[in-house]
Structure formats: structure tokens, C-alpha cells
Write a structure and sequence with these properties.
By secondary structure, this protein is α/β, with parallel strands linked by helices. The chain has a single domain, classed as Metallo-dependent phosphatases (Purple Acid Phosphatase, chain A, domain 2, 4-Layer Sandwich), CATH 3.60.21.10. The longest helix is centred in the N-terminal third of the chain and has 17 residues. The chain is globular and about 60 Å long. It starts with 6 loop residues before the first helix and ends with a strand.
Length: about 325
């Protein structure tokens, strides 16, 4: 592990290093350290969410246009969306199995936002919860406010809960997340059993900024003819997921554009994937996909023509 880690950090991360490999953990930590000094830097390291000036400029522009107030109110208008998923390889006992999908939570955005998100998930019926990354609002600085907010949200989520990290997240968050009974999949696979049948759930590390995803490693223990779901923060590795034989890919990152033109047309998606994959349901070959527009907001606490969402995916068997 990097020499600059404190003894406390080394002790906390030691079990994770044993689980995912010391080399992988070292690489992720080194990338985070480099990122911290490149915030707002020139290409290829520039990303809009990393710019300290972007939020100020956006707020000024939206205020001048008379849209700032409405956009801020929209942040609290979280929708519960339903998505029916038909999978040819789904085992019969998983017919009707429902996944609650939360993405781009940015939990330390504000107290009113956190309370509204908690209100949205209370009372929902589902079998398993997945969180596809970006737990903190900023891409740098302390993770503690986001972790404190996650603890509050977690008490309202029914287990099991699985997660992946996003480009806003530090791998240092993982031990504290797992102490909350949120299993973080770092190029790993978990299995879910029901009436003797098995559903495979894989999760990869952030493919958008850090590029530390490894689909081959995540899929190495999944039988080729099994039904497997891939959790990814961003949609970019869709083709690789299809080649690896995944039936379903759940992701986020794009916010659906967050600030869109009338009709929900994204101005910027911050993704290298095709625009057709920027929000909602999509398909690539035999791979079924869904990109959440996210629960939270990034850069500015504003949404226009793209309301935030939590999503219930109901699994069913495709007709032969």
C-alpha cells in the first residue's frame, strides 16, 4: 500500500487488500492521490464534475435565465420508476424477483434531499437493493458526510444491499460501507439463491474516470450459461459486458443529462457510451441494459427536464 497511508488506514484496509489484491488496492489509491491534485486540470484529466469554477458559472447562467429556483425544486421531485426486464436465462424461481436500483446518490447534497430520498424508498416492495456508485457530492475531500448520510439511508433499506463505487468515490470508503452491511463488489461476484436456483450478481469498479474495472475477473466464476447481472457505475463497458455473457447491466453516472433541453434531450452526458444508452432501458445484442438518471445531482443542485429517480426492476422470463 502507498507509504503515505496512516497506520490506522493500513489497519482498516488490510482485509480489503487481502480480498481484492494488494496491487489493485495500491493502484486505486495512487490514482485517487493523483486525481486529488488534478482537480480542474486540463485534458485529458479534466472532467466537468471536477471543476471548482463550473458550479459557480452554472448557477450564474441558470439564475440569469430564471431557471435556478425551478431547477432546485426539481431536485426533490424524486420519481419511483418501474422497469420490466425479460431475460431468456432467468431461472424460474426468480420470476417476479424485484431489484431496487439507486444510482448517483450524492448523499451529502443537502439534508432536505436526503430526507426526500429516504421517504421515497420507505414502503417499496423489493427483494434486493443495488447501489451503482457516486455516494458523495464532490469528487475529492472528506467522505465522512456521505458515509454518515449512507448510514441513515441504509437503515431504511431492506437487505441484501450490494454496491459498486463511482468516479466520485474513494476506495477508502469500502470498510465503512461494509460495516453498514452494504457489500461493495470490486470486480467481484456474489450469488443469490432462491428455491434451489442461483442468480449471479457481479460488480465492477469505476470504468469512467479511474478505469479500474475488470469484467473478466468479475465474471471468472460465473458459468457461461448462467443468468448474470452486472453492476457498473457507468454504461461505457456495455460491449465488453455483452461479450462476457451478462444478461442484464444496471448502471448510472450520466444523470440522464441532469440539465436537459425540453423533451428531456441531454446537453451533456459525461459518458463515452452512445447517447441511446444515456438513460432508461436499452439493448445491445443479447444484453439488456438500464441506465438510471440517478437520485441525486452533481456540480449544482439543479435538475431541468430530467427528474431524479429510484427504479424498481422486475425480472421475468423471456418467451422462448
Amino acid at each position: 500500500m502507498p507509504s503515505e497511508l496512516s497506520d490506522a488506514d493500513r489497519h482498516e484496509l488490510a482485509p480489503l487488500a487481502e480480498r481484492v489484491g494488494a496491487d489493485f488496492l495500491r493502484r486505486r489509491l495512487e490514482l485517487e492521490s493523483r486525481h486529488a491534485v488534478r482537480v480542474g486540470a486540463a485534458p485529458p484529466h479534466f472532467h466537468l464534475e471536477n471543476s471548482r469554477a463550473a458550479a459557480t458559472l452554472l448557477r450564474i447562467a441558470l439564475t440569469v435565465a430564471g431557471l435556478h429556483g425551478r431547477g432546485r425544486r426539481n431536485v426533490l421531485r424524486i420519481q419511483v420508476r418501474h422497469n420490466a426486464v425479460k431475460l431468456a436465462t432467468l431461472p424460474a424461481p426468480f420470476e417476479g424477483y424485484t431489484l431496487l436500483h439507486l444510482s448517483d446518490l450524492h448523499l451529502d447534497l443537502s439534508e432536505p434531499f436526503l430526507l426526500r430520498l429516504i421517504e421515497c424508498v420507505q414502503g417499496l416492495a423489493y427483494d434486493l437493493c443495488v447501489l451503482t456508485g457516486d455516494f458523495r457530492f464532490r469528487t475529492f475531500g472528506s467522505s465522512l458526510p456521505a458515509l454518515d448520510a449512507l448510514a441513515r439511508l441504509r437503515s431504511h433499506l431492506r437487505p441484501p444491499v450490494y454496491a459498486t463505487l463511482g468516479n466520485h468515490d474513494s476506495i477508502r470508503m469500502v470498510p465503512k460501507m461494509e460495516a453498514l452491511d452494504v457489500r461493495v463488489l470490486l470486480n467481484e461476484t456474489a450469488t443469490v439463491e432462491r428455491e434451489g436456483a442461483t442468480l449471479h450478481l457481479a460488480g465492477i469498479d469505476d470504468p469512467h474516470y479511474f478505469g479500474t474495472h475488470d469484467i473478466r475477473r468479475a465474471a471468472q466464476d460465473i458459468p457461461r450459461d448462467a443468468c448474470a447481472i452486472l453492476l457498473s457505475h457507468a454504461p461505457e463497458p456495455y460491449a465488453e459486458a455483452a461479450r462476457a455473457g451478462f444478461a442484464l447491466m444496471l448502471c448510472g453516472h450520466t444523470h440522464g443529462g441532469q440539465i436537459c433541453l425540453p423533451g428531456g434531450v441531454p446537453i451533456i452526458t459525461e459518458s463515452r457510451a452512445p447517447r441511446a444508452f444515456a438513460k432508461g432501458a436499452w439493448r445491445f445484442g443479447s444484453l439488456v441494459g438500464y441506465t438510471s438518471v440517478g437520485c441525486g445531482s452533481s456540480i449544482v443542485d439543479v435538475r431541468l427536464n430530467c427528474l431524479p429517480e429510484v427504479t424498481l426492476h422486475r425480472l421475468g422470463r423471456a418467451a422462448a
